[in-house]
TrEMBL record:
The keyword Nucleotide-binding applies. It is a multi-pass membrane protein. It is found in: Cell membrane; Membrane. It is an enzyme of class 7 (translocase). The chain crosses the membrane at residues 124-143, 149-168, 342-362, 374-405, 739-760, 766-790, 802-826, 838-856, 868-888, 914-938. InterPro entries: ATPase_P-typ_cation-transptr_N, ATPase_P-typ_cyto_dom_N, ATPase_P-typ_P_site, ATPase_P-typ_TM_dom_sf, ATPase_P-typ_transduc_dom_A_sf, ATPase_P-type_domA, HAD-like_sf, HAD_sf. The plasma membrane ATPase of plants and fungi is a hydrogen ion pump. The proton gradient it generates drives the active transport of nutrients by H(+)-symport. The resulting external acidification and/or internal alkinization may mediate growth responses. GO terms for biological process: proton export across plasma membrane. Its EC number is 7.1.2.1. It catalyses: ATP + H2O + H(+)(in) = ADP + phosphate + 2 H(+)(out). GO terms for molecular function: ATP binding; ATP hydrolysis activity; P-type proton-exporting transporter activity. Residues 75-148 form the Cation-transporting P-type ATPase N-terminal domain. This is Plasma membrane ATPase. The lineage of its organism: Eukaryota, Fungi, Dikarya, Ascomycota, Pezizomycotina.
Length: 996
């Protein structure tokens, strides 16, 4: 019986680094030996919280300043550099010297795959490209052709302002994200100057000796030298190289993995090459085999020699073949769609204006008076018809949003992931560390009859990894629990040597270690793993087996995860020793977070490798639901296509899940129209993270999972993910509000100006028009920093709804402007006795109502930010000054009667009285209130509210069943009585039949 000293907690402990510092170099103390170091670790360990794998605080390499153009400070090396043969003759115990590393890096560059270093000047020029910007550039040429140099200069100023603001804001936000991205940079253990060092993977050079172990991404194309614990490995490596050199002159291709006949006898590493080959099964790697950059190590630990840096790696050379073949992405497609539609509308309104102009006998061009020709009207419509700030504001809103997320410890790998995260309606979450606290504790163990509990605990520790720097949670809690068993610690310190260690294998579901007791000279094989796997391994009586199964069921019903322990002495039979019940309590905030997620229209599904009883008990604790199914029902479960899809949709979770099950769940949900997010932390999760619409690497994830994810979280728990989803929806709301606002502005002036041209042959001066465009952009620069609400359901663009509402709002703005213009036709001064300058009054009304429209489209759920209010107020003050002093409106000899000549109206010397300005402000407020009421009513119409929303649960039952039947079809071959061959379709055997 174990002493009742309480549970030893494990998992996410806060002061792990401090604990390691306290332990010092215990793991490097050669005098203590392998298990002496482990015993010292057990004795000295102090509870704390584990730092995230991603939480390193090493300084980044020097970055080139934003104002430095041209080449990077450190040469990246040419892609044609061939590694000299003598570079690969590194002493595997000494490694490279610091001097060698610097010399080699000058020729090969950093070990990283980066896009071509972006020239800052070309980056700035990119803000002048796109359908919308091209239209404004045509307007520049048109203004120059009409010799309208003031407008020419102002339009160029608008373009420059947008480019400068967009470039600066995006760079500023990118710097925030990049600073945190440095914390999740891939790291590698390397032998240099005779000692092991942990460095950033980008610092590796060809010839480096590295250590690769399970859970890591291979940091560069390398060749395996030997297993980590094999002192004679280098001799075997040289022998294998000689054998390969003496083989046939027909060399195999680099990607012909596994065809070589190996002389080493056993696999050293198991490598996940799914990212390269699409093959989900791990590939065994032997001495002198090549392992490739960005593949993941799933099992084993070995020394390897770096043969090529990233650019000349297999993956790097493949990537170079598709350089420039960039997918524009969904967000870019949406922006281009809006820009193209606005461009078509501009062409329509220009055509309408020209038709009206012909009836008014206007010339195409009159150089002596550029204000009285059709090209002048075209220039005005080009300026007002395309929102030059649209691409910049939306892109910088995403960039600033990424910086917001970074402050919440969510590192966005690509900006478009924000859009995906905002639209997610199903979150497939792992259990450990996300729904639970990842603080494992071992309760009172079950010990088989006649077995000493101390011996069982010692065997469990022997069947654990002994690398105290990178213990997984289960191994860690197993080892630290020996604090409660002093006799087990004595056994562990009694002279043991590991012959072979096999990490956890998801197929066999166990860990095994072949060890030797050096004092007794006896060999043992120790194993721990899933209770069923350990029971199948052991030779025990039916009574012991039944008791073991009953105890497993009891532990599962109590929410405990069980770990079976067994050992084999010499050539004897396997002996079942007992079972360790582990408990990982739910996080304090998980239940409330799940309830909040459901309010947000987010369905949370738990995918866990635990037994179904444990999974159901966990779901009960979290109020997640009890529709938890065994993963066997997914693959070879005997369900038809539609039934299987229905099962996945209604399930609250799946138990005993393998990586292929996660991938299948994501795929089926996507086939039903759901936008799916998947969380993961291990190498095995990489395929499903890539497959999902938004892959999320949780805190403490391996490098492989981080590389496959769209977003990397540096803080634990489900609450951080749900908070990030809310922030993403706020970012989306800012963009959506701005797009509605900007489309309405374009339509407002297009409708008013074209109708005024046709009816009274009047327009607002082009000088004022360009300032209206300038003010609209100035006022909305702060949109990216506005306070925004988030929808209580997954968001979508709903372009039909956006266009309908924008057209209505633009039409109302045009009606408001026409009402004011009509009032100015009234005798004796119109709205007041001395109404002042007509163009100034119209300019002020248009500017005010357009600026205030953003307060309508942003919604009234939150107060606007001080940045947005300040920007709008500043522009309103400038517009008022334009009106009061008649800036750009004073023209001599312009008559006041529109019936006398086709002119731009201008009266009373250009200035406007303060009384008139106050009245225009009041009138504009009234128009804005009316528009706000209409906008509110439009959003209450249910069919309009749902217009353009995709059906999230759409079942194509016919296609699902066809595909399900096809997956069960096989081609059979048989011979007829005359010896002829015949091929026909038949049904595949079931899994049970295949096993037989």
């Amino acid at each position: 019986m174990a002493p009742p000293n309480g549970d030893i907690e494990n998992g996410d402990v806060e002061k792990e680094q401090a604990t390691r510092d306290h332990l010092g170099a215990a793991d490097n103390d050669a005098d203590l030996g392998e298990y002496g170091n482990l015993v010292k670790y057990i004795s000295n360990y102090r509870d704390g919280r584990r730092s995230s794998i991603a939480g390193s605080t090493y300084d980044d390499a020097p970055k080139k300043k934003w104002y430095q153009f041209g080449k990077a400070k450190n040469a990246q090396g040419g892609t044609t550099f061939e590694v000299p043969e003598d570079w690969l003759n590194t002493d595997w115990k000494q490694g490279l010297s610091s001097h060698d590393v610097e010399n080699r890096r000058k020729k090969t560059g950093w070990n990283e795959l980066t896009t071509e270093k972006e020239n800052m000047f070309l980056k700035f020029l990119s803000y002048f490209t796109g359908p919308i910007l091209y239209v404004m550039e045509i307007a520049v040429l048109l203004a120059a052709g009409l010799r309208d140099w003031i407008d020419f200069g102002v339009i160029i100023g608008i373009l420059m302002l947008n480019a400068i603001v967009g470039w600066y804001q995006e760079k500023q936000a990118a710097d925030v994200v990049a600073s945190l991205k440095g914390d999740i940079a891939m790291r590698s253990t390397v032998i240099r100057d005779g000692s092991e060092q942990e460095i950033k993977a980008r610092e590796l050079v060809p010839g480096d000796i590295i250590i690769i172990e399970d859970g890591q991404v291979v940091p560069a194309d390398s060749r395996i030298i030997s297993a980590y614990d094999n002192p004679n490995g280098y001799t075997e490596y040289l022998r294998e190289l000689e054998a390969q050199a003496g083989e046939s002159a027909n060399e195999k291709d680099e990607d012909d993995v596994g065809e070589h006949k190996h002389g080493s006898g056993y696999a050293i590493l198991a490598i996940d090459q799914s990212a390269m080959t699409g093959e989900s099964l791990a590939v065994d790697k032997y001495v002198a085999d090549a392992v490739y950059y960005t593949t993941g190590c799933k099992r084993g630990k070995a020394y390897a020699l770096v043969t090529h840096s990233a650019k000349m790696s297999f993956v790097g050379r493949t990537a170079s073949l598709v350089t420039g073949a960039k997918d524009q992405g969904h967000f870019k497609a949406i922006m281009n769609s809006i820009g193209t539609s606005l461009l078509v509308l501009v062409m329509f309104w220009i055509l309408a204006a020209w038709i009206g102009g012909f009836f008014h006998h206007l010339h195409l061009a009159t150089p002596e008076d550029s204000s009285l020709n059709l090209l002048h009207y075209a220039l005005i419509l080009l300026i007002v018809g395309v929102p030059v700030g649209l691409p910049v504001v939306t892109t910088t809103t995403l960039a600033v949003g990424a910086a917001y997320l970074a402050k919440e410890k969510a590192i966005v790998q690509k900006l478009t992931a924000i859009e995906s995260l905002a639209g997610v309606d199903v979150l497939c979450s792992d259990k450990t560390g996300t729904l639970t606290a990842n603080q494992l504790s071992i309760r009172e163990p079950f010990v088989a009859e006649g077995v000493d509990v101390n011996w069982m605990m010692a065997v469990a520790a022997l069947a654990s990894s002994h690398n105290v720097k990178s213990l997984d949670p289960i191994d860690k809690v197993t080892i630290l629990t020996l604090k409660r068993y002093p006799r087990a610690k004595e056994i562990l310190a009694g002279g043991w040597k590991t012959i072979k260690f096999t990490p956890f294998d998801p197929v066999s579901k166990r860990i095994t270690a072949e060890v030797t007791n050096t004092q007794e000279g006896i060999d043992y094989i120790c194993a721990k793993g899933a209770p069923k796997a350990i029971l199948n391994l052991s030779n025990c009586s039916k009574e012991v087996s039944d008791m073991y199964k009953a105890k497993t069921t009891e532990f599962a019903r109590r929410g405990f995860r069980s770990l079976g322990v067994a050992c084999k002495k010499g050539d004897g039979d396997w002996q079942l020793l007992g079972m360790l019940p582990m408990f990982d309590p739910p996080r304090d905030d998980t239940a409330s977070t799940i309830a909040e997620a459901q309010v947000l229209g987010l369905s949370v599904k738990m995918l866990t490798g635990d037994a179904i009883a444990i999974a159901k008990e966990t779901c009960k604790m979290l109020a997640l639901g009890t529709k938890v199914y065994n993963s066997e029902r997914l693959i070879h479960g005997g369900l038809s296509g539609t039934t299987q899809h229905d099962l996945v949709e209604r399930a609250d979770g799946f138990a005993e899940v393998f990586p292929e099950h996660k991938y299948q769940v994501v795929e089926m949900l996507q086939q039903r129209g759901h936008l799916t997010a998947m969380t993961g932390d291990g190498v095995n999760d990489a395929p499903s993270l890539k497959k999902s619409d938004c892959g999320i690497a949780v805190e403490g994830a391996t490098e492989a999972a981080q590389a496959a994810a769209d977003i990397v979280f540096l803080a634990p728990g489900l609450s951080t993910i749900v908070s990030a989803i809310k922030i993403a929806r706020q970012i989306f709301q800012r963009m959506k509000a701005y797009i509605q606002y900007r489309i309405a502005l374009c339509l407002h002036l297009e409708i008013y100006l074209v109708t005024s041209m046709i009816i009274i042959n009047e327009t607002i001066g082009v000088d004022l028009i360009v300032f209206l465009a300038l003010f609209a952009d100035l006022a909305t620069i702060a949109v990216a920093y506005d306070n925004a609400h988030f929808e209580q359901r997954p968001v979508e663009w709903q372009l039909p709804k956006i266009w309908i509402i924008s057209v209505i709002l633009g039409g109302l703005l045009a009606v408001g402007t026409w009402v004011l213009r009509g009032a100015l036709f009234i005798p004796n001064g119109g709205i007041v006795e001395n109404f002042g300058n007509i163009q100034g009054i119209l300019f002020l009304e248009v500017s005010l109502t357009e600026n205030w429209l953003i307060f309508v489209t942003r919604g009234g759920n939150t107060w606007p930010s001080w940045q947005l209010v300040g920007a709008i107020l500043g522009v309103d003050v400038i517009s008022t000054l334009f009106c009061v002093f008649g800036w750009l409106t004073m023209k001599e000899n312009d008559p006041s009667d529109p019936a006398t000549k086709n002119v731009l109206l201008n009266t009373h010397g250009g200035d406007t009285s303060i009384v008139t300005v106050v009245i225009v402000w009041g009138y504009s407020i009234g128009v804005t209130i009316l528009i706000a009421m209409v906008y509110f009513l439009l959003n209450q119409i249910s069919w309009l509210d749902n217009l353009g929303r995709a059906k999230r649960s759409r079942a194509d039952t016919q296609m699902e069943n066809i595909l399900a039947h096809l997956s069960k079809v096989a081609i059979a071959h048989e011979q007829d009585e005359h010896g002829g061959n015949r091929w026909h379709l038949t049904t595949k055997a079931t899994e049970a039949e295949e096993d037989d």
